[in-house]
Structures are given as C-alpha cells and as structure tokens.
Amino acid sequence: MSMLTTIEALEALYGTPHERSVRKEITYVNEDYRAFIEHAPLVVLATSGPQGLDCSPRGDAPGFVRIVDERTLAIPDRVGNNRIDSLRNIIANPYIGLLFIVPGVGETLRVNGRGRISADRALLDSFAVEGKRPRTVLFVDIDAVYYHCSKAFARSKLWDPSHHVERSRLPSAGQMHGRLNGPSFDVEAYERDLAERMRTSLY
C-alpha cells in the first residue's frame, strides 16, 4: 500500500481549495460566528502536549462559552474526573482547537488559538452555577475562526431521530468499568447510584 508523504502529493490529489473555503477563515468573531458560539451547548477541545493528544467535550447551557471580545473566549472548566489532560497539555503547549456544535444544525464552527488558564477568584465567581464555581477558566486567544459546512452531519444523519442508537445496544458505563477494574468492581451498585451522582455532581 503506497502512502502519501508530502504536501505536494496531497495538493496534487485534492487540487486547489475553493475561494469561498479560504475567505470564510477570519481572525476574529464576527456577528455570524458569534451566533454559533452563543447557541452552542457543546464544544470539543483539542490539545497537544508532551504526553500526546487530547480531544474532549465541554458542555453546559448555551452561552456557557463567554465571548470576552472579538479575539478572546472564556470557557469554565466544570467538575470532571480530575485527569486534566487538556489543561496539562495547554500548560506545555498553548495551541488548541475548538469545535462548536449546535443541536439540529449541520454547520459547525471551528476556532484555533492559544489557551491561558486562570483561577482568579472573582472570575470563577462570575461563572458560578447553582452556587458552585468552576475549578478554572480557560481563556482562548483567537488565531482563526471558520465554519464547516454540513456535509459530515448530513452523511452521518446525526440529527435524524430514525438513526439514533438505543443506549442499551452499547456497553453501559458500569459494564465498561467492571471489565476494566475486574471482579471486585460492583457494577450493580455503580449503575444504581449513577443517576443520583449525575444529578448532584454536574457542577
């Protein structure tokens, strides 16, 4: 199997990008791109560091990503598993990518930039939900913003309810933990308490 190993070979195969594909990339959040950020309850954060890559979701009520100004975003880091893979990477390498997803909408918005992490008390207070502050806030200094067309979502039929997968067709969280942790892990207890943990520990 032959592999493509040069930029020249890739460009020869794919050709020149359409002018519209180039012009949609700008260095700031304009009115149209602001609308995507304000309506997105989910953003996927991609980072890279000495230990490798990380790509993880960040979700909350629409508008949880704050537009500080046209070149700066702020994202609260809510309670999680404390692996902090993304944050570790950003300390070592600030370059990040964001993908904003709006339910029911085929287009997505991509932001490339550099991250800075703050634990300023007043800032954390401003992001509090139900009286609970995030651990940190990630500032994103924007280098590029552009939108992706809806072809990927159209091909995947992601928003088509007739293609939604029943959760029971996949291993449950408890089952996955059980296989990873061995027979001492109490799958039934984990799954019995899961709904309550979700209710009480979102923030």
From TrEMBL:
Domain of life: Bacteria
Domain (Pyridoxamine 5'-phosphate oxidase N-terminal): residue spans on this chain: 31-149
InterPro entries: Pyridox_Oxase_FMN-dep (IPR024029), Pyridox_Oxase_N (IPR011576), Split_barrel_FMN-bd (IPR012349)
Entries under NCBIfam families matching the protein: PPOX_FMN_DR2398
Protein name: Pyridoxamine 5'-phosphate oxidase N-terminal domain-containing protein
Organism classification: Bacteria, Pseudomonadati, Pseudomonadota, Betaproteobacteria, Burkholderiales
